[in-house]
Predict the 3D structure of the following.
Amino acid sequence: MRLCLVHITELPQEFHDAWLGAVEQSFRKVLRPDTEVVLKPIRRGLKGDNVLDFDNPYFAFLDRREIIEAFIEADAEGFDAASVHCFGDPGVKEARAVVNMPIFGPGESSLHFACQLGRRFAIIAANMPGQLGQVSEQVRQHGLEGRLIPNGIRFDKEPFAQVWEKWLGNPQLAADAVAEIAEECVADGADVIVLGCAGTSLLCSMVGFNQISVSGQTVPILDCVMVGMKTAEMAVDIKNGAGLPIPSRARNYVLPSRDDWTRVRSAFGLPSRMERP
């Protein structure tokens, strides 16, 4: 099985293998040994060293378009399924409507998985402007407001842009910061903690931080990328083994005809067929 993980920023070629080796620490421990994962950065877009660009809705929209194109390209290359390295699931909904392979976002996957593990959950998200609105909207879209504890979206105590490099150099600092907030969430009724950031998820997985004990209670802490990738792998097994249509091809998820595909993409100056690298 071949899974594609779309990276949401440009990634210089000289950093590609090193970054894949890092992000694999989120999911390699739970995927089957014969499952291959390929990291596909977007061809052009926002740069990873300026995360604040994503706070502008227009800039984020432009980047999402490139993410969708990466999904389309991966589908043409024959991948079995795909995910994206961002809790916000950018491009997932749109790409599902035009590609053959299953696509699962880490946000949607981990939120629903949390509901299977406990009665109520909390989300610890990156401390960036605009995140409260974005994550709140994700919870609402998935109909899970009733499963979220009161004030259930919490944030790192320091701005993400200021701590990322420090945490990357010492991931235990990220785990310690999450643990402090997670304890508060458990005290307020959370049975499960969802890490609402792919970067924070990676750092916590690097040091094996996936649970917390509070007053005799053991609460799972979910790496959203790990859950998203495992969900993609599981979906391929179910699709191949049982022949289920994954995703559903009803209503606006019916794949467009070749004529419509060519007509609409041509209207926007896009190639009717994705060109391979």
Summary: The radius of gyration is 19 Å. DSSP finds ten helices and eight strands in the chain.
